[in-house]
Amino acid sequence: MADRGASALSLPEDWPAHPDPILALNHMGSFDWDLDAGLMDMDAQAFEVFDLLPEEYDGRPETLSVRVPPPEAARLDAVVARAIKDGSENYGAYFRIRCRDGTLRWTHTQGYIRRDDSGRPRRVVGIVRDATQELADSAARSLRAAQDEAFRQQTSVVQVISAALAHARSVQDVIDVIKDAHGIRHLGAASLVMGLVEAGRIRLVAEGPAGSFVPGTRVTRIDEPYPMSEVVRTLSPRFIESAEEFASDYPILWPHITDLRITSAAYLPLIAQARPIGAMGLLYDDRHGFSDEERAVLVALGSSIAQSLMRAMLYEQEKDLAEGLQQAMLPRTIPSVRGADIAVRYRSAALGRDIGGDWYDLIPLPGGTPSGGGRVGAVIGDVQGHDTHAAAVMGQLRIVLRAYAAEGHTPATVMARASVFLHELDTDRFATCLYAEADLSTGVVQMVRAGHIDPLIRRADGSCHRVAVQGGLPLGLSAEFGRLEYPVASLELDPGDTLLLCTDGLVELPGADLDDGMGALAALICEGPDEVRDLADRLIKVAEERGGDDDVALLLMRRRARESTRPGGRLQQHVASGDPEALTQARQMVRAAVRAWGAGDQADEIELVTDELITNALIHTEGSAVVTLRVLDGAGHRLRIEVEDCSSALPRRRDAGEDGVSGRGLLLVERLADSWGVEARGSGKAVWCEFELP
Asked: Is 576 left (phi over 0), alpha (psi -120 to 50) or beta?
C-alpha cells in the first residue's frame, strides 16, 4: 500500500490554495494535514468522498470519525504512523467509510510526507477517492481469472483423459482411465457412475468411490425415472444445479444418495455412431450450477469417452472373432500319447483382428509298443503375416503336414512335400516349421527344421539347453529355389527329459538378440515347475506380462519312465547318398534304440550289421537308403532291421581276396544276425535281418 506511486506527487508549497483541476476531474479530493497544528484542510471533492458537508467539519482529523468506523480508523492510523516512523516518503491504504444512509463504501487514500531538514515530519499532503467501483472491477477480474483458470484446468484434464483413452483397448481399460485418481477427480467430481446400454436396459459398469453404489440400480430400464435413463432417451445432457432440484426431479434416487451430500450433478449421454451406447454421471459435493464453458467441457468429455468405448467394443468383438478363427484352425484336442506327458498352449497377440499363423500339432504315428510308448510327430510352425489369410494358409498347411506324417514318410520327406505344397498353393506366404518324430519307447527323436528357431531340452536334473539343429529353407521357398534338402538330426530323450518347441513370439523382442532371448528362455525353463502343464502356464504368463505383437505357440513333451522293461518300437531314418552325417545319425539311432530296448549286450553287433547293410545300399545302388528298425512281437521278441533302396538288383555274396577291402558285408550279416533276407518293394527292394532279443 505504501508504494502505490504517491512518491510521484510533487506539490507546490502553497498547495492546496490552487489544487490541480485534474484531481477533481478524476473524482479525487485533496487534503493538507498540518502535523504540528493537528489540522487537516480538505477541498470540496474530498468532502464528497467522505459524504460530509463543509459545515460538518471543523478541520480536525478526529471529526472524520463520524464517517470512518473505529476498526477502519485504527488500521488507517497504524499505516500512517508506520510510514512516519520508518522514514517513508509516502503511504497508501484502502479503508471503508459509512455513508449517511448507513452503507459502507470503500475509499482509497495516498499521502506524501513532507519533512524538515532534520527529517522531522511537518506536513502530509495527499488525495482521497471513492474506490468502490475499482474494487468491484478487481473482484470481478479475480473471479473471472479464477473461473478461467478452473476452465483451463478442466480442459487440460479432459485432454489428459482423452490422450489416455486413445490407448484403451478394452471396455475395462476405459473404465480404469475414468476412475483414475488423476482423471475425473481433478474435474472436481465427488463420485461417478457409468452404464452401458444392453437390450433396452442400462447395465452399471462403474461406480465410485467405494460405498456409493445405490441398491437396485445395477440394471435399470431405459424408461425408468433415473437421470441416466433420461439422457439415454433424450440424447441430451442433464445438468442438475442444486440438491433441491435433484430431490424434486428424481425422488426415487435421491433418498439413496443423500449421504453423499450432493450439491449438483452432470449426466451425459454416451453417443457413438449416432446412437446411445451408455451414460455417465458426475456428482459434485462442493459446487452449485455450471457455466456455459463448463457444460461445453463436460459434453466434450462425454463425446471422447463414448468414442473410446465404441472403439473398445469393436476391438473386443474383432479380437474374439480373430481368436475364434485361430482356435478353429488349431487342433481341438491333443491325443494322449503312451510314454509322454504333453502340454500345448497358444496366446494371441494383442492386435485386434490381426491374427497370426502360428500353430502346433501332435500326430500319432504307427509303431511303438503298448508298454514302452508310442510313436508321435510333434509340429510347431508359423506362417508369415498377421491376418486371416495367414490363418487360412496355416490351417491348410497343418492338415497336409499331418497327412504326410501319418502316411509314414520320413521326417525329411514330410517337410519337403509340405514345402512343395505351400509353393503350389498360389500364395505369397512362406512358413517356418519344425517337425520332430519321437519314439517314446527308445527316446530317439528325429527332427527336421525349415527356417524355424531351434528346440530346447530340459533334462531330468533340471538343466536346460538349446539344441542346434541344422535346417533348410522355410516352407514354400525351398521348391522355388530348387533346394528340398532337409537334414535330419537325432537326439535322445531320457526318462524325465522334456522337449520344448515354440514359435519366435516366446523368444524374440524388438531390438533384442535372438541368442539372448533363447538364453533367457532356457533360464526360465530351468527355474520352472517340473510338470509340463504348470511349466506351459508359466511360460505363457511370462509372455503375456511381457506383451509383444506376435502370437505364441508352444508344445512341451516330457518322456515318462518306462513302466516295463519289455522292448518295443519302430524307428526310421533316411540316409542320403554322399551324406556321412546321415550315416552317423543312423548309427546313433541304432545304438540308442538297442540300448533302450534292453539289448545293450548286442549293441555292437547290431550296429555293425546295420552299418554294412546301409553301406552296401549306398555303394551298389544309385540313390539313397531308408533304414527301419522295429520289434516283432510273437513267439519271443526279435529286432528286425530293414534297409530299403530304389534298385531291384539283388545283393550277392562275394569272396574277398587277401588284400580286398570289400566282399565281406553279407558274410558279416550272415554270421552275426540270426536270419536275413531280401524283399521286393515296388521299384526297389529291402534287405533285412533279425536278431533275437533277450
From this structure: beta
Which residues face 678 on adjacent strands?
A: 687
Residue with cell 509353393: 423
- Phi, psi (5° rounding) for residue 256? -85, -10
Provide block-wise average pLDDT over 10 residues at a time, the chain (694 residues): 43 52 70 91 90 90 89 88 89 90 89 90 91 76 62 66 71 76 62 86 80 71 91 92 90 84 90 88 83 81 84 77 66 80 82 68 71 76 80 86 86 90 85 91 86 93 91 81 78 90 83 83 91 92 79 90 56 78 81 79 88 84 82 68 83 59 73 84 78 81
**pLDDT tens-digit readout, 599-658:** 778 888 888 888 888 888 888 777 788 888 887 755 457 888 888 888 877 777 666 555
To 10 degrees, the CA torsion angle through 48, 53, 55, 57? -60
Residue 280 near residue 270, CB atoms below 8 Å: yes
CA distance 436 to 421: 19
Which stretches of 430-551 are assigned E, i.e. beta strand? 431-439, 444-450, 456-458, 464-466, 471-472, 489-492, 498-502
Instruction: State yes or no: cis peptide before 16, omega within 30 of 0.
Output: yes
Q: Are the C-beta atoms of residues 504 and 521 closer than 8 Å to each other?
A: no
Render pLDDT for 556-573 as a digit per residue (tens, 0 to 9).
Answer: 999 987 654 444 567 778
Task: Give me the DSSP letters along 376-395.
Answer: EEEEEEEESSSSHHHHHHHH
In whole angstroms, what is the distance from residue 42 CA to residue 162 CA? 63
Q: Are the beta carbons of 309 and 166 closer than 8 angstroms? A: no
Q: Position of cell 460538518? A: 56
Query: What is the dihedral angle through the alpha carbons of 365, 371, 373, 375, rounded to the nearest 10 degrees?
Result: -20
Interior angle at CA 495, CA 494 and CA 501, nearest 5: 70
Residue 14: other Cβ atoms inside 10 A: 8
pTM, two decimal places: 0.50
Angle at 434 between CA 432 and CA 438, to 5 degrees: 170
Question: CA-to-CA distance for 192 and 280, rounded, in angstroms?
Answer: 7
- Give the distance from CA 291 to its chain's centroid: 39
Fill in the amino acid letter for 548: G
Distance, CA of 611 to CA of 587 (rounded, Å): 7
Three cell numbers, residue 148: 478461467
d(CA 447, CA 434): 7
Residue with cell 524325465: 496
Number of alpha carbons in the 13 Å side-chain half-sphere of residue 473 = 18
User: What are the distances in angstroms from CA 645 to CA 367, 405, 430, 465, 651?
Assistant: 21, 20, 32, 36, 11
At residue 36, φ and ψ (nearest 5 deg) are: -70, -40
E-assigned strands of 131-263? 191-198, 201-208, 219-221, 238-240
Distance from chain centroid for Cα 497: 34
Length of the chain: 694
Q: How far apart, in whole angstroms, are the C-alpha atoms of residue 483 and residue 477?
A: 8
Residue 380: strand pairing partners: 360, 434
Q: Coil, strand or helix: which one is 367?
A: strand
Compute and round to an integer the Cα radius of gyration of the chain. Answer: 47
- What's the Cα-to-Cα distance from 108 to each of 5, 85, 119, 137, 667, rounded to whole Å? 13, 21, 26, 15, 131
Helix (H, G, I), strand (E, B) or coil at 155: helix
